[in-house]
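User: I'm putting together notes for a lab meeting next week and I want to include a structural view of one of the chains we've been expressing. I don't have a solved structure, so I'd like a prediction I can at least talk through. The sequence is below, exactly as it appears in our construct file.
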Amino acid sequence: MEMRFQDLNFAVSIIEKQFRRNRNRSISATFHSLRRNSKLSFFGDWLLLGVIIKTIHQLGIYPSRNSILYAMNMSPELSKLPKREKTLLLEQLLKPSPVAMKQTKIASG
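Assistant: Thanks for the context. Below is the predicted structure for the 109-residue chain, given as structure tokens.
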């Protein structure tokens, strides 16, 4: 019997491919396509949304609050959260990762 581990490297490669092809791609469409993928069914909605935001931050794309909220409302898991918790989660997602910030500083001089 072969043991398999699930990781998010598959999702990261899909996200990078989609956003390199179209920088204006919708976060909610990306989230929806990952959510339907059977290879990623083990992971929760919050984790998938976090990986999407982190990956596009690394690509130098910073989404608006409304686009993230729209994707959160598409999730049955995240849409039921109280407004206060959604706001706190949104603030965490909007913080750029240290890697993305370092790349921006290097690029800007």
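A couple of points you could mention at the meeting. The chain has a mean pLDDT of 83. The CA atoms of residues 15 and 52 lie 7 Å apart.

User: Perfect, that's what I needed.
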